[in-house]
UniProtKB/TrEMBL annotation:
It comes from Methylobacterium symbioticum. GO terms for molecular function: enoyl-CoA hydratase activity; long-chain (3S)-3-hydroxyacyl-CoA dehydrogenase (NAD+) activity; NAD+ binding. InterPro entries: 3-OHacyl-CoA_DH_CS, 3-OHacyl-CoA_DH_NAD-bd, 3HC_DH_C, 6-PGluconate_DH-like_C_sf, ClpP/crotonase-like_dom_sf, Enoyl-CoA_hydra/iso, FA_oxidation_alpha_subunit, NAD(P)-bd_dom_sf. GO terms for biological process: fatty acid beta-oxidation. SUPFAM superfamilies: 6-phosphogluconate dehydrogenase C-terminal domain-like, ClpP/crotonase, NAD(P)-binding Rossmann-fold domains. Residues 511-608 form the 3-hydroxyacyl-CoA dehydrogenase C-terminal domain. This is enoyl-CoA hydratase. The lineage of its organism: Bacteria, Pseudomonadati, Pseudomonadota, Alphaproteobacteria, Hyphomicrobiales.
Length: 734
């Protein structure tokens, strides 16, 4: 064997080898070209050396591995385009297919090499790494609380192409296997064992010894599916049992994806076809689908946004380089209401000391009680211990006294959305904190530059905009006011990193980035309602377009009175042309005349009956001046309206300099408001469609529906020049 760089390989006196995966200079093992080369050498050495009985594969790091290096897969796509240009499509396809199935062939070689392999897993073992484990003849997982196995490829628009679909479908009942592949969940060790995906669970420091013992005890080097007369757990596809599974599986696929995710369809096809074939052919079928999916715009867009860009933003891509790392230990949260309580909880969960202030001791305590209820929920789910709760609550100090903020490095205010109340809070906080502390506002609508006028040190004043519920939503918008300095931005970014959320940095604007797009989505739903589109059709069009919920449902979650309040405030400040009067009237009717505020009072566009699913309020039809015949409506146009209106708003934020990096609009739109993830985000939606085609679509909508579909100048120019948002950003950076 030539020198191994990514593995240590040792054989003990009993002839049992241990390959310890430990890539130099990386915190996490990933599957790269070099790793595949070395793994191949290890397999051939084990297979060819009569003195070696078998081999244990384990990791020298805390985690086993996060899976394949997705940038390598992106590289395959680029190589394909290059080869297609020089040698033609067929030659490029042949090469692409061979390259994209390398991992699958390697794992199959391991499985059939004649010597037993055991995976000894601790920590994260996901994607391609778990496919490696599945190809091993035996799997032992450690009971370490951090151990997780799974095949999450679907989350980036891919599916397991290293044999995962075939092995899982031969280890589990078909229905369970499909569900596991569709959901891409990370499984805890005991769950994985109960599902038949690993054979044993053992303490971390015993997994390698147990793996060796399994080999020494004569563990078989033949996978169950290579034993003649093997029967899959659910039997044959063409059987009465199979017919109980496949027709509903198709229906579930449609219901869950609205046919927007080619990778999910490929999973269905790959399992369905593969189960009817012997393993080698089945793997070839899987590889064919994998090569096809890897080249879809959905996979390319999702890998770029949800893996690469998100990773870069999480690692501080937008952090001002000259500011030394901050050492945040103590944060203040002023306003212990709905948002403040959530902010206190996530901060304390990250190990920060929290000073939680409200007008009364009871209000502050109520905010802390929220943290108590959340961590108790975690304990009930087995995700935390009572000692964690005690420690977390001990980190939250409640008070009404601003003097307690003295040693805070960062103070976040989440008091009422009223400029006067906020100005008073700013004054009181600044009187109490040290000269280096940063002040942040969690306002959702008030421009930061205006609020900072109440500050004596506007360079240390920044917006940190959370989404609700704080503990669940992964996005945080950091808003740069006109005077906000680099240190405030860096502090905000360091804080967001500590609480393990994803930050985007945007320039000041009414509604910042996310809420502008969300507002456009909700308004479009209201417009449709007033046009006479059946409410259920509006909601379904939203979901079919790829949004997590329809616009009316989303409005119920946000609260209808909040929308009305914002509309009234906007009209008062910017004049009657700044709002949509039909929408205002609709909200006035719902909120003021009908007392329907949304989910919070169980009455909004939907009714929320106790103990039963929500249902659209029958009274909505009486608010419609006309009612259109659903058969006369074009569902594709409704879907387009709902996405295009948001993408146009995103394009405007770029034109206005609110968004300065397309990665942030894309990541922000998916994490912040669930913009159809298969598109890769609101700007990728335009880029992948092509600016010219998008502009044509928007202009056709403008002709029918008015100026909210008018195309901003930056996008018109892009359509003329054949440019893209990402191309423009690259040019600017160069
Ligand atoms: P809330 O009414 O639930 O909480 C506000 C809290 O601030 C109350 O507990 C109140 O007693 C306290 N408070 C008011 N004046 C105070 C003062 N002078 N000193 C100390 N405490 C004071 O409101 P919320 O929904 O948590 O919103 C708070 C802020 O967060 C607002 O600026 C809002 O725009 C913003 N925000 C809200 C959401 C959301 O979905 N609710 C999302 C993002 C941002």
């Amino acid at each position: 064997m030539t020198d191994l760089k990514n593995f240590r390989f040792e054989t003990d006196a009993d002839g049992i080898a241990v390959a310890t995966w430990d890539m130099p200079g990386r915190s996490m093992n990933v599957i790269t070209e070099a790793v595949m080369d070395e793994l191949s050498q290890i397999i051939e050495t084990v297979a060819g050396d009569a003195g070696i009985k078998g081999c244990v594969i384990t990791s020298g790091k805390d985690n086993f591995s996060g899976g394949a290096d997705l940038t390598m897969l992106q590289g395959l796509g680029r190589a394909y385009e290059a080869l297609k240009a020089t040698e033609g499509e067929e030659a490029a396809m042949v090469r692409f297919f061979e390259e994209s199935r390398r991992l699958s062939l390697l794992f199959r070689r391991l499985e059939t090499c004649g010597k037993p392999f055991v995976a000894a897993i601790s920590g994260i073992c996901l994607g391609g790494a778990f496919e490696l484990a599945l190809a091993c003849h035996h799997r032992i997982a450690s009971d370490d609380p951090k151990t997780r196995v799974g095949l999450p490829e679907i989350k980036v628009g891919l599916f397991p192409g290293g044999g995962g679909t075939q092995r899982v479908a031969r280890l589990m009942q078909t229905g369970d296997a499909l569900q596991m592949l569709f959901k891409g969940e990370q499984l805890r060790p005991l769950m994985a064992r109960n599902m038949g995906l690993v054979h044993a669970v053992a303490p971390k420091d015993e997994i390698v010894a147990q793996a060796k013992a399994w080999i020494a005890g004569g563990g078989s080097a033949v996978a169950p599916w290579d034993v003649p007369k093997f029967k899959a757990p659910s039997g044959k596809v063409y059987s009465p049992a199979g017919m109980m599974i496949w027709p509903p599986a198709n229906a579930i696929y449609r219901r869950e994806t609205h046919d927007n995710y080619p990778a999910a369809k490929a999973i269905l096809a790959s399992v369905y076809e593969g189960l009817q074939l012997p393993m080698d052919l089945a793997l070839k079928v899987e590889s064919r689908y994998f090569a096809k999916i890897l080249r879809t715009s959905e996979a390319q867009a999702m890998i770029r946004t949800l893996f690469i860009s998100m990773g870069e933003l999480n690692k501080g891509a937008r952090r001002p380089k000259d500011v030394p790392p901050t050492d945040l230990k103590r944060v203040g949260v002023v306003g212990a209401g709905f948002m403040g309580a959530g902010v206190a909880y996530v901060s304390a969960s990250a190990g920060l000391e929290v000073v939680l202030i409200d007008q009364t001791a009871e209000a502050a305590e109520k905010g802390k009680a929220y943290a108590h209820s959340l961590i108790t929920g975690q304990i009930n789910k087995g995700r935390a211990k009572t000692a964690d709760r005690d420690a977390l609550l001990a980190r939250i100090q409640t008070t009404t006294d601003y003097a307690a903020l003295k040693d805070c490095d960062l103070v976040i205010e989440a008091v009422f959305e009223d400029p006067r109340v906020k100005a008073e809070v700013i004054r009181q906080v600044e009187a109490a904190i040290g000269p280096d502390a940063v002040f942040a506002s969690n306002t959702s609508t008030l421009p930061i530059t205006g609020l900072a006028k109440a500050s004596a040190r506007p360079d240390q004043f920044v917006g940190i905009h959370f989404f609700s519920p704080v503990e669940k939503m992964m996005l945080v918008e950091i808003i740069k006011g006109e005077a906000t300095g680099d240190r405030a931005i860096a502090t905000a970014l360091d804080y967001v990193r500590l609480i393990k959320k994803t930050p985007i940095v945007v320039n000041d604007s009414r509604g910042f980035f996310a809420n502008r797009c969300v507002t456009a989505y909700i308004l479009e739903g209201h417009k449709m309602l007033l046009e006479g589109v059946p409410p259920a059709m509006i909601e379904n069009a939203g979901k079919m377009a790829g949004m997590p919920v329809g616009p009316l449902s989303l409005n119920d979650e946000v609260a209808l009175d909040l929308g009305l309040k914002i509309a009234k405030a906007t009209e008062a400040q910017l004049g009657p042309d700044a709002i949509d009067h039909g929408q205002k009237q609709l909200l006035v009717e719902l909120v003021e005349n009908q007392g329907r505020l949304g989910r919070k009072n169980r009455k909004g566009f939907y009714d929320y009956p106790e103990g039963a699913p929500k249902r659209l309020w029958p009274g909505l039809k009486d608010l419609q001046p006309t009612r259109l015949d659903p058969d006369s409506l074009d569902i594709e146009e409704l879907k387009h309206r709902l996405l295009v209106v948001q993408a146009l708003e995103a394009a405007r934020t770029v034109g206005e300099g609110v968004i300065t990096d397309p990665r942030e609009a894309d990541v922000g739109s998916i994490l912040g408001f669930g913009f159809a993830p298969f598109t890769g985000g609101a700007l990728s939606y335009i880029d992948f469609m092509g600016a010219a085609a998008f502009v044509e679509l928007a202009q056709a909508l403008e002709a029918h529906h008015g100026p909210r579909f008018s195309v901003p100048e930056n996008l018109l120019a892009m359509a003329r020049d054949g440019g893209t948002f990402y191309g423009a950003a690259r040019q600017q950076a160069a």
